[in-house]
Amino acid sequence: MTTTVIDDIGLLVTNDPVLGPGELGLLTGASVVFEEETVISVGPRGQIADERIDAAGRCVIPGFVDSHTHLVFAGDRAEEFTARMAGRPYDGGGIRVTTEATRNASDAELARLLAARLLEAHRAGTTTVEIKSGYGLDVPTEERIVTLASRVTTETTFLGAHLVPAEYEGRADDYVELVCGEMLDACAPHSRWIDVFCETGAFDVDQSRRVLTAGRARGLGLRLHANQLGPGPAVRLGVSMGCGSVDHCTYLSDDDIEALAGSDTVATFLPATDFSTRQPYPDARRAVDAGVDIAVATNCNPGSSYTTSVSFCIALAVRDMGLTIEEALAAVTVGGARALRRPDLGRLTPGSRAHAVILEAPSYHHLAYRPGVPLVARTIGPLEGRARQLTSGLPT
Amino acid sequence: MTTTVIDDIGLLVTNDPVLGPGELGLLTGASVVFEEETVISVGPRGQIADERIDAAGRCVIPGFVDSHTHLVFAGDRAEEFTARMAGRPYDGGGIRVTTEATRNASDAELARLLAARLLEAHRAGTTTVEIKSGYGLDVPTEERIVTLASRVTTETTFLGAHLVPAEYEGRADDYVELVCGEMLDACAPHSRWIDVFCETGAFDVDQSRRVLTAGRARGLGLRLHANQLGPGPAVRLGVSMGCGSVDHCTYLSDDDIEALAGSDTVATFLPATDFSTRQPYPDARRAVDAGVDIAVATNCNPGSSYTTSVSFCIALAVRDMGLTIEEALAAVTVGGARALRRPDLGRLTPGSRAHAVILEAPSYHHLAYRPGVPLVARTIGPLEGRARQLTSGLPT
């Protein structure tokens, strides 16, 4: 098998404290050798391999693990965004606009849209994406979404319980029954995770518990959209059920923090959502200080956070969530990996996946110091190839 | 001479209300023909020319006019940024670090650094940059900076009065004398503008007036760094002296607004600076509502705003400064042109410069709706060529 070395790395973030100082496991003047998709050696510059990628003294970090996205959808909602920013009332339909566009899109169209977003994410340094369904809200479309997503990532999440669709208005329990029954039957074979939007206006605690319980019975891991719009019991529900992650966490009570800190559940913050909805930013500092494991992700979706840029989320996390750049960088690499229960991701250490980003910068500090600037010189990861596979067979 | 058409433009922003609806002068299904660097025709898709650029149904906007940058410097100050974000005290020297690095850099090194930043700006959609000196603070280095800047832009600004350098500590008036005398003599031939940082801790009103008066006597246009760190008389000084622009304007009193509204002086906002320094954002809404002409620019510099991304500034302007996306887009195109007294820039209308950006988006709304995402598919403008010229003769 072919070996490749990323050589002449000025500053290497391994995220392995055994290899170098700090939680980031920093090394200078380093090189990383990998075979297929696995790191086999981390050492000083000049290690020999069949092929050589020249980092030219720049900073190399693990690829971003974007542990919360909704990348499969059709249509956009720019007008809704613009109205919200201008403080104008807007009743264009919200998420239902996306649901209708997604239901009406062909498989080929959805594949092309997904491929374009994956390429965009790849160019921005992302090497792993979790992808949720939730814009079908009927059995055939939810199944199409998870099937498509499963072609590009193992981290596919069935989110039939994203919202009660129009045709079930006033009959949320009936919709939950569909989600837990026929829809789950169709989607579980293509999913690793199940997720619910547990919030006033979406699904209550009992409904959420039903959905998660049904998913667990089918062997799915659990995730939860929790405490985005206000305080509530969702975070504690997620912890008590052993969710891999509770996501958003814009509002965390002392009890929520205490529950998270004593658990294996990761708190995933989505600051680009708070940016694009003018919500308050979560107090990630407080969570970290209490010992909570955290992740930061994009929540890429057409309604509340239409960005694939993890770097942008890092800059917000540092400016507005109280994280140090080191904590923010860890949150989008090992943090995302932990939220997905993937110890093979988010590090550059022997045995881990060889997913790396060469930054157009001497240091990872630039990810926050240079906001808005695309600093990724090269991404070494699988998403570009998967995007091309997705569209290679399609009619042009 | 060769003509070129940008064809199949889904949505065209002309910034000429005569050509289409609104201040943005919007057209759908359009094409733009240009000869050399000048637009000769704007019309429906399908206009004929010698060469054709296919916009493929995407949105085309005028290139960004970044009317406030400090692109010539050496070194970076990532550690200072990181300390500031973490709330840690840091006395690494601030601007003096940059001054020392810039003084010590060779001409070739400064040219390479400038070229890299121009390429970055070009790829991000910028087609005009104003460039200030101000990291030399001695006669030879200030002269080197404006000379270098003048090779890539006509919009070169002599900012010897950026700060009192260490060797003049406690003798600000002596330094002002140097700036107005020998330094101005050396720099005026290579500059179009003169600028002063009028703020507590930098130069007071009398000193600022002396500098501007001396510059005007040499035929330079006037600009002013005003009201960045607190309220004060700088904005009114700038208006009274007929400055093209007063920049920052983070703090504007009712009197400031009234003075600006009755003048030709543009208020230039620099929201990425407020982002990177955790300053409050200026209330641009209030200024616009009062009839003030505004611009938005990056202020790209290594201390307080190390970004070349005008899109990032647009997103902040919409989220945090109360501008609509239309106002924000105008502020970085025609607004920047107005701040530079350049009626030939910032529009796509017959007679204007053919500086354009093809967005990887159906609408300019995406510039705010998709924060952090590099949405520039192609920039048609001079900065790439000028960057290459700058480095073509250099030893490798």
Outline the structure in words.
The structure is a homodimer of 396-residue chains. The first copy, chain A, folds into two domains: 3-62 and 348-389, Urease, subunit C, domain 1; 64-339, Alpha-Beta Barrel (TIM Barrel), CATH 3.20.20. Helices cover 36% and strands 21% of the residues of chain A. Chain A contains 15 helices and 16 strands. The first copy, chain A, has helices at 78-85, 95-104, 107-123, 139-150, 172-187, 205-217, 234-240, 254-261, 271-277, 284-289, 310-320, 325-331, 334-339, 366-369, 383-392; strands spanning 3-13, 26-35, 38-44, 51-54, 59-62, 64-66, 126-129, 131-132, 156-161, 193-198, 221-226, 245-248, 266-269, 294-296, 356-359, 376-380. In chain A, the strands form three sheets. In chain A, strands 1, 2, 3, 4, 5, 15 and 16 form a seven-stranded mixed beta sheet that branches. A seven-stranded parallel beta sheet of chain A has the order 8-9-10-11-12-13-14. In chain A, helix 3 packs across helix 4 (139-150), helix 3 packs antiparallel against helix 15 (383-392) and helix 7 packs parallel to helix 8. Chain A starts with a strand and ends with a helix. The interface between A and B is large, with 37 and 37 residues.
Keywords:
homodimer; 396 residues; alpha/beta; Urease, subunit C, domain 1; TIM Barrel; 2 domains; 7-stranded mixed sheet; 7-stranded parallel sheet; 21% strand
Shape of chain A: globular
Structural class of chain A: alpha/beta
The tally of structural domains of chain A comes to 2
- Share in β-strands of chain A: 15-25%
Proper CATH architecture of the largest domain in chain A: Alpha-Beta Barrel
Q: What is the overall number of helices of chain A? A: 15
Distance between the termini of chain A: 35 Å
What is the rounded Rg of chain A? 20 Å
Q: Got a strand count of chain A?
A: 16
Question: How would a textbook summarize the main sheet of chain A?
Answer: 7 strands, mixed
Average pLDDT reading of chain A: 96
Main interface pair? A-B, 37 and 37 residues
Q: CATH topology of the largest domain in chain A, anyone?
A: TIM Barrel
Seen as an oligomer or otherwise, the chain set is homodimer
Q: Look at the structure and name the CATH superfamily of the largest domain in chain A.
A: Metal-dependent hydrolases
